Amino acid sequence: MSIYGAFDISGSGLRAQRVRMDAISANLANQRTPGFKQVMVEFAAGDPASGSPLGVHVSAIERVPAFSGEYGAVDRGTEADLADGLADGRAPLPQFNYVQAMTDGIEAVRAYEANIQALDATRSMIDSAIRVLA
Prior knowledge:
Layout: H1 5-29, E1 38-47, E2 52-64, E3 67-73, H2 79-84, E4 90-94, H3 98-133
Helix pairs in contact: 1-3
């Protein structure tokens, strides 16, 4: 691994956590939307593009339907809303754990911050090494 490999590793972590945070925020924003499917992001080690075993990448983004047993009113403004709804103007609402989503969001933000700190530490070590050599 080159000295710049640490930048690649932290960068892959930043990208993965950004995708995770986007999915969590979409889940929170759409949790009461009839016909909504929760977005789940899965990570895997390595970088399949370069073949490197270091870093992390998003291996899958899945939409998981989970019916809560509750029904909500359907906006009759669009054809898609009518297709998702029942004849009486109701549609099934998804099962959603708000507390778990908020906890996942906080964890994603903390992981993002940790990757930024790793980038800063790597940059600082490279700066110190250059000063020693100069």
